[in-house]
Amino acid sequence: MALTATTIAQKLGMKINKVSPCLADLGLLERYEGYHGRKAWRLTAEGRKFGFSKELETCSDGSPMLSISWRESVVELLSEQVGGALGAQQAMLAQAADLNTVEADLEFEPGTEFVLQPKLNGIRAIWNPDRQALFTRNGKKIRSVPHIVAELKRHELGHLPLDGEIYRHDSSFQVINGLAARHRGSDETEVLQFHVFDIAQAGMPATARLEMVSKLTVGRYVRVVESQQTNDLEVIQAVYEGYLGQGYEGIMLRLAERDYRSGRSHFMYKMKPVFDLEATLIGFAPAKAGSCNESTFGSLILRLDSGQVFNCAGLSAAERLHLADVAEKGCRITVAYGAMSEAGVPLFPRYKGIRWDL
Q1: What is the pLDDT of residues 81-137, one digit of tens each?
Q2: For the chain, what percent of residues have pLDDT higher than 90?
Q3: 44-86 pLDDT per residue, tens
Q4: CB contact at 8 A, 133 and 80
């Protein structure tokens, strides 16, 4: 039986406009520019294993459009994608903090202990023992690491929702992200490891959860993130600096006696250095049609003194209105960022201000 996007949406309880983007996430569909510049979907080489298409003369001007139908097998594949968000434990997310925040906690509740761990710069992943699969924090199934999944299936703690990151300490985030995003495993993706730093399970304080993690048998692909416990601010500062010196992104701090809480949590902090630099404004990238920024712009187009060009989209609505009104090409813009990419441009830059003095 051939299925349409409408029947797939009905079977999975999805909104119909979410079906094609989800199929594209799985690598089954891609966007292309059709007749008269119309954007449309078409099957990829992988998509042709699950569906088929034919041209229909249904446009008002008589030009053809593609009609895509799907085999039943795509429903199971897609259900894993959308079902991950329902079946996977939602990750506990950290609050950004600095030493002043930590010091305030220590003063408010003397004796408060923190569990310290290095902050990894990888892809967050949670092992779902019921589904026997790894999911991103947004519930997408990670398909690129069957070697890690195989090791977790036979692991003595494989019955627990292990929380960690797809990571490799000698690889950049861009490399890790590119490999982890693939739709199947390969010799290249086998370099990726799963670094476990918590158990996504309520009802246990961090000390108990991490005691279990510390006893986890280290395998070829499953690793344990080191941890230590303290209530000494000077120790926290020294450990933080030590992690940075070892090439980690920063430090994670968990309140030792607090439970695991899904979503953004006040029980876990992240600290990492923030840098800034100046770049020259060379233009404004237009916003997507129909977006809330359509009346201003999508992002700033900036050029570093080295000649490298990058986009900065980290702006508030008020900042966009202000810049659209007063910023001129050639002015100097200060941006904040956490690290530089391999290409030599800031990663996740955020607008700080116009340098009127330069």
Answers
A1: 655 443 445 788 888 888 888 888 777 677 788 999 999 989 999 999 988 999 988
A2: 36
A3: 888 888 888 876 655 555 555 678 888 888 877 776 665 544 3
A4: yes
The conformation of residue 226, written as its DSSP 8-state character, comes to -
Residue type, 144: S
Domain termination site, one of 271, 288, 314: 271
Measure the CA–CA gap between 58 and 67, rounded to whole angstroms: 10
Pair 205, 281 in one domain: no
Write the CATH number for 314.
Answer: 2.40.50.140
Domain carrying residue 154: 88-271
Comparing CA positions, the residue from 323, 273, 264 lying closest to residue 94 is 264
Whole-angstrom CA distances from 258 to 85, 230, 350 are 25, 15, 32
Whether 199 and 320 map to the same domain: the answer is no
For the whole model, what pTM was predicted? 0.66
| Contact of 35 with 59, CB cutoff 8 Å | yes
Between CA 60 and CA 58 the distance in angstroms is 6
Element (H, E) at 235: helix 233-245
Q: Write down the pLDDT at residue 23.
A: 85
Residue 126 to residue 89: CA distance in whole angstroms: 7
H-type helices in 298-357, by residue range? Answer: 317-326
